[in-house]
């Protein structure tokens, strides 16, 4: 008898539970514990939730947020920078509710009960007006941004030192976007602008790992510092080279490092060789920089990838040891084949251009360069008539001989000595101009002159 009564009560209890679960499952209202932004939408229909959220959105979108950084501040009117998609936000919520139903009757019921104890916040769909926001971020960065300073090598009496890097700071755009999103729905309408550390691209640790410690090679050339424009061009190009780091296996390009020679960069018009003539050109004189560097690369025994000699001899390096450059056409390139990093320094002391390579170890062999003149090409003579010279007079503009030159590199160490041909270059002669007078003397009719014609 008692067993039947207990069974009946159990079945009744089970029916009640099933009814509750089914009622909960078929309930068209939004489950309790669901929030959209900070609005409790539990127990509401989708339309009710949509209306409430639309009303709140219209209210919030017209608010402003104050962004502060110490004593600076910016006013952000939300409607100018943000769009809130109320309909899509509600659709997202509705999809979430449908997914609960898809869990099934029992699992869905358990999940809804958990929501009551641990409410869930569904984020509204917020779309930033990226162009406007980018303008604002640029304005803020102009005030708060501090650029990092890279670590650099410094040499003092050929001793290598490292000047440590300095960290910078920049606006943390992602975090600020999140803060703005949160502030839209809260009463906190003042935000402190978040910043993040901006690390230097080259740190002290990076330079230390390169192992650059000793001077490997040095070469210098002299110039006439009274030629102001030419001296300035040498100085500008030298500054571009100074401090360059060349990685193992890297091919160095003079044109890539120095860049195009323009007046905006400080280059001036000075004499330069173009088409076998000396003319004034922007950047005239920087071939002395490339030629000085070429000799340094040879003494360091680097692999020369690209190099061209001048069409005419130059006075600052021996024949066969010059390297002409022209942006976009003629370059000086060499490859770092030392197996370690190289530091290039370039400086001007009085009337000397001095370039040096520093690395992790000294060269284990002696390298010497010497030029061998194979042929001298006489200056051709060109005769020209000159109608400004009297007949019988001659004026000579002396040209220069040309040369065919071999450049050799001699290696020497404790065991042996040998030499290698580096290049064979031709320098064109310039013509000797012989001007012959063609001007006819005129007899002046002067009444003051008494003359007797003797037959």
TrEMBL record:
<dbReference type="InterPro" id="IPR011098">
    <property type="entry name" value="G5_dom"/>
</dbReference>
<dbReference type="InterPro" id="IPR022029">
    <property type="entry name" value="YoaR-like_PG-bd"/>
</dbReference>
<dbReference type="Pfam" id="PF04294">
    <property type="entry name" value="VanW"/>
</dbReference>
<keyword id="KW-0472">Membrane</keyword>
<keyword id="KW-0812">Transmembrane</keyword>
<dbReference type="InterPro" id="IPR052913">
    <property type="entry name" value="Glycopeptide_resist_protein"/>
</dbReference>
<dbReference type="Pfam" id="PF12229">
    <property type="entry name" value="PG_binding_4"/>
</dbReference>
<keyword id="KW-1133">Transmembrane helix</keyword>
<protein>
    <submittedName>
        <fullName>VanW family protein</fullName>
    </submittedName>
</protein>
<keyword id="KW-0732">Signal</keyword>
<feature type="domain" description="G5">
    <location>
        <begin position="365"/>
        <end position="440"/>
    </location>
</feature>
<dbReference type="InterPro" id="IPR007391">
    <property type="entry name" value="Vancomycin_resist_VanW"/>
</dbReference>
<feature type="transmembrane region" description="Helical">
    <location>
        <begin position="5"/>
        <end position="22"/>
    </location>
</feature>
């Amino acid at each position: 008898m008692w067993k039947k009564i207990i069974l009946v009560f159990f079945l009744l209890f089970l029916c009640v539970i099933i009814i509750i679960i089914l009622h909960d499952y078929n309930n068209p209202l939004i489950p309790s514990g669901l929030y959209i932004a900070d609005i409790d939408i539990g127990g509401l229909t989708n339309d009710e939730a949509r209306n409430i959220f639309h009303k709140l959105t219209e209210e919030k979108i017209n608010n402003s947020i104050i962004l502060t950084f110490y004593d600076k501040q910016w006013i952000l009117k939300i409607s100018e920078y943000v769009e809130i998609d109320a309909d899509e936000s509600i659709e997202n919520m509705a999809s979430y509710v449908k997914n609960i139903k898809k869990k099934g009757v029992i699992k869905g019921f358990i999940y809804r009960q958990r929501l009551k104890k641990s409410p869930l916040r569904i984020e509204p769909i917020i779309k930033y007006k990226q162009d406007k926001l980018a303008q604002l971020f640029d304005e803020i960065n102009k005030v708060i941004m501090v650029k990092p300073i890279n670590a650099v090598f410094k040499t003092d009496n050929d001793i290598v030192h490292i000047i440590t890097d300095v960290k910078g700071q920049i606006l943390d755009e992602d975090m600020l976007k999140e803060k703005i999103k949160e502030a839209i729905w809260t009463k906190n309408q003042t935000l402190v602008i978040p910043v993040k550390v901006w690390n230097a691209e080259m740190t002290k640790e990076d330079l230390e790992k390169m192992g650059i410690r000793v001077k490997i090679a040095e070469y210098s050339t002299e110039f006439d510092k009274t030629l102001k424009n030419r001296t300035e061009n040498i100085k500008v190009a030298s500054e571009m080279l100074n401090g360059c780091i060349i990685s193992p296996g890297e091919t160095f390009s003079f044109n890539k490092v120095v860049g195009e020679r323009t007046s905006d960069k400080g280059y001036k018009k000075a004499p330069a060789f173009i088409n076998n003539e000396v003319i004034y050109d922007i950047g005239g004189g920087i071939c002395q920089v490339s030629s000085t560097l070429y000799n340094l690369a040879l003494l360091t025994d680097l692999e020369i990838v690209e190099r061209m000699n001048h069409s005419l001899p130059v006075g600052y390096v021996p024949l066969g040891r010059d390297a002409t450059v022209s942006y976009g056409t003629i370059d000086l390139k060499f490859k770092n084949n030392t197996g370690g990093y190289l530091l290039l320094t370039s400086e001007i002391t009085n009337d000397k251009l001095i370039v040096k390579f520093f690395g992790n170890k000294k060269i284990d062999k002696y390298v010497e360069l010497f030029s061998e003149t194979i042929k001298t090409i006489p200056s051709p003579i060109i005769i020209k008539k000159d109608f400004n010279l009297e007949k019988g007079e001659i004026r000579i503009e002396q040209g220069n001989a040309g040369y065919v030159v071999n450049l050799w590199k001699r290696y020497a160490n404790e065991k042996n000595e040998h030499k290698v041909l580096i290049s064979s270059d031709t320098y064109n002669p310039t013509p000797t101009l012989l001007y012959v007078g063609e001007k006819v003397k005129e007899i002046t009719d002067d009444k003051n002159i008494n003359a007797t014609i003797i037959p």
